[in-house]
Amino acid sequence: MSQSSDQRLGRSSVKLGRDVYISSSASVVGKKEGEGPLGLLFDMVGEDDLFGCNTWEEAESNLQKDAVYLALGKAKLKPEDVSFIFAGDLLGQSIATSFGISSYNIPLLGVYGACSTCGESLALGAMSIAGGYADKVVCVTSSHFASAEKEFRFPLEYGNQRPLSATWTVTGSGAFVLSSENADNKARARITGVTVGKIVDYGLKDSMNMGACMAPAAASTLEQHFSDWSSQPEDYDKIITGDLGTVGQTVLIDLLREKGYDISAVHMDCGIEIFDAQSQDTHAGGSGCGCSAVTLSAYILKQLEEGHWKKVLFMPTGALLSKTSFNEGQSVPGIAHAVVLEKIG
Amino acid sequence: MSQSSDQRLGRSSVKLGRDVYISSSASVVGKKEGEGPLGLLFDMVGEDDLFGCNTWEEAESNLQKDAVYLALGKAKLKPEDVSFIFAGDLLGQSIATSFGISSYNIPLLGVYGACSTCGESLALGAMSIAGGYADKVVCVTSSHFASAEKEFRFPLEYGNQRPLSATWTVTGSGAFVLSSENADNKARARITGVTVGKIVDYGLKDSMNMGACMAPAAASTLEQHFSDWSSQPEDYDKIITGDLGTVGQTVLIDLLREKGYDISAVHMDCGIEIFDAQSQDTHAGGSGCGCSAVTLSAYILKQLEEGHWKKVLFMPTGALLSKTSFNEGQSVPGIAHAVVLEKIG
Fold first, then answer.
1. Residue A301 to residues A27, A295, A298: CA-CA distances in angstroms?
2. Nearest neighbour of A107 by CB, restricted to B92, B109, B198
3. Rounded to 5 degrees, what are φ and ψ at A75?
4. Interchain pair B109, A99: CB under 8 A
5. Any bridge partners for residue A97, and if so which?
6. Of the candidates A16, A263, A227, A337, which has an alpha carbon nearest to the alpha carbon of residue B133?
7. Is the pLDDT assigned to residue B301 strictly greater than 60?
8. Do A320 and B94 touch (CB under 8 A)?
9. DSSP 3-state assignment of A36?
10. β-bridge partners, A101
11. Taking the mean position of all CA atoms in its chain, how far away is CA B324?
12. Which end of chain A is more exposed for a tag (fewer CB within 10 A), N or C?
């Protein structure tokens, strides 16, 4: 037990009273992601996207299992050293999580924020450590191209055409060990703050243009963050969204310009980085819970470790639709949760 | 900001360093629940289960919206007074939540633990207040008989037979305002501790016998709770599970007897209380995220307020299946999260 001096900040933010360290992390991805621009940085690349399983859902569960295994190993921890695991995915009733992590026997707090789930899990994980409730927690999220297409759009066998505004769900899982201590001075980065997002619904209904659906939520969380922290875009080396893709990026930059913030010089989107849209035919970019998670583990934390960046805002974005809500003619609301990541030292 | 003296306790528990108050709560239910033994205690009973909407999913969203509205009103709060809302439901991608609470514009932390979600939301909500991250949060969960049957089993139009081990998903939503203060001395109860559950999978595959699927998880969390808190069944006036029903209750009592704990004298199950199984033809009992939530709001908190009980353990139970995992032949793992509730003063 230790005293914390955590602070509420403005409407929606928390400034952690003590640093929370990302002790280790791991990324496991599919073949296509392995062939992309970040391919060499991932810890493990599957040879085929079934990962030796019989179903896409089992394959996605295996991604989570492997990512947690690798992250724990890198931190030299056993599952019983971990107090809680914050985990989630995109599938109905989060079954990739339920069947992926159960063998670790770690007390589970299941989270859901669509593709923003990685941000939500890191936010709650960091709060639980800074609050003195845990010394170590694991945060893990995943997505899988084939299970997601089946869950949200069409089975792959149908062979539907994809408009240019569509994104390509990343097959991958990223796991993070958060700790109250910088053990052996080997932590990758620290989490210093959190901004929790609200649901924002502009009434868009196109599940093949998720970037445009989520951009207003990203703009809302970002504007709130700047206000809560009295900060400006130039205070960050990068402001990183999860999976807006090229269409959503344009909308986000425009929306924030209307609010008086120009993020064009510092904005980066994991969905744009993870694939080479031209040669990989992924259209507007990558998406999914796994997209931001594996990019954070493989690329963003590396930049912070190597000192190329000192402080970034990591803000995964989620589209809160289901097949049922879409079929019933509902809109696609968005949400975005942000965490402040800083270089150690 | 205030200093907390929260403590980790044993493997999976948190003893809150300061009391967290349930300032107010509200329950909104369907017609059948209104006709049950607790019928007169609910705040609002719908005349028909569509609640004026066009779809079952919209109806469930409306349940959440109304429950939050009533709970905020009773606490004399506006949505902008609340820091975070912890919310979830049983539908794929939690759409009852996404379309139910968005108009409140409260920063959302989406949670998923199947029918244990009410327990998870109260646990995280209480931790966020005791940790100094928020003064007030709302926790809300829901379920709806028709949307759940469609989501997990068969559309109602199919008219399938239900075995006697099946439970009847409660149409209802319970909302709770948690606060760091006992405003006007009107708080209903206080939350003093939390035990977070693990996934427990005994390999059962019968989605028409969820009580048996979840009972091992309830036994696991309860055994862990007794160990973490060095407590015994007789330390509680009631130990209350969410929706084990009559079949699951028997299994739970037996499993714990094997571990040396006899809870038969103090055990109560919300699913058994909410319906009169004989006259209402609900078979093993009620179930769903809404079952434990509305029973807590309408009945359990009333018993604590009136001093009939001083201390109870409230432990909703969840079955972590989806239609897809069931159809693919997977088992039905369970999870249970517990919160300690005590009388004020």
1. 12, 9, 7
2. B198
3. -90, 5
4. no
5. none
6. A16
7. yes
8. yes
9. coil
10. none
11. 24
12. C
